[in-house]
Design a protein that fits this description.
Elements: E1 2-6, E2 8-11, E3 18-21, H1 25-33, E4 36-40, H2 43-51, E5 57-60, H3 85-101, E6 105-108, H4 110-118, E7 124-125, E8 130-140, E9 145-154, E10 157-158, E11 168-174, E12 177-183, E13 188-191, H5 203-213
Parallel strand pairs: 1-4, 1-5, 5-6, 6-13
Antiparallel strand pairs: 2-3, 7-10, 8-9, 11-12, 12-13
């Protein structure tokens, strides 16, 4: 299964060059799940992949912040303040594509925030959610069982319980913020933790991605 994944634009630390970043552990995680990642760094590449029916699933990766008006373009904003407008255009088109083609999409951290803004909700700043861990206890409708687990946290913004976007079902929260949400009708899932940032990948995350992407062994 070929899954498009978004990448983060970064400034090279030693040269006046811009590059694209994707945690190498995403590839290792993908191998555990049984999917082939296709990093998407431009709209032209994405258009080609879509026109050739190449993309079978989507991951909106984490890292960085969104502009407040996402998914609408803000032509006056420059590529600064840790906001990558090219990436936002790609994210918006991938969400459109997922909805119109009914292919599974998983938004991770920033990716889940993008899903919330896309569907008309808003984000609020939070404290104590960067480089921390906490316990979650919840029923996962995808894995169809109750779960207790310790997850990582790396976000400055969150979807508060009262601002869950329409048609999404929040099934676990922490500190008043949604940690996982699932669309009622579409194949769209959002999680606020980073499965790729674990020293040892969680079997729960591997199973979650397998089930959601329909990987049959």
């Amino acid at each position: 299964m070929k899954v498009a994944i978004t990448v983060q634009s970064i400034q090279h630390p030693n040269y006046s060059e811009q590059g694209h970043y994707l945690n190498v552990q995403w590839q290792e995680f993908a191998e555990k799940v049984g999917i082939i990642l296709v990093p998407v760094s431009s709209i032209s590449l994405l258009n080609t992949l879509i026109s050739q029916n190449y993309v079978e699933g989507v991951i909106l990766s984490g890292g960085g912040n969104l502009s407040k008006n996402f998914p609408n373009k803000n032509l006056t904003m420059k590529l600064n303040e840790q906001v990558d407008l090219n990436r936002e255009e790609i994210e918006s088109k991938l969400i459109d594509f997922s909805i119109n083609s009914n292919i599974p999409l998983i938004g991770v951290c920033r990716g889940m925030q993008a899903l919330s803004l896309y569907h008309g909700s808003k984000l609020l700043g939070v404290e104590g959610h960067v480089n921390s861990r906490h316990i979650l206890e919840y029923y996962c409708p995808i894995l169809k069982r109750r779960i207790k687990r310790n997850i990582n946290s790396y976000h400055d913004y969150a979807i508060k319980d009262e601002f869950v976007p329409d048609a999404f079902l929040p099934n676990v929260s922490h500190d008043g913020s949604v940690e996982q949400m699932i669309h009622e009708n579409l194949k769209i899932l959002g999680i606020m933790w980073h499965p790729e940032r674990e020293n040892e990948f969680s079997s729960l995350d591997i199973e979650l991605f397998k089930n959601f992407f329909g990987i049959i062994e």
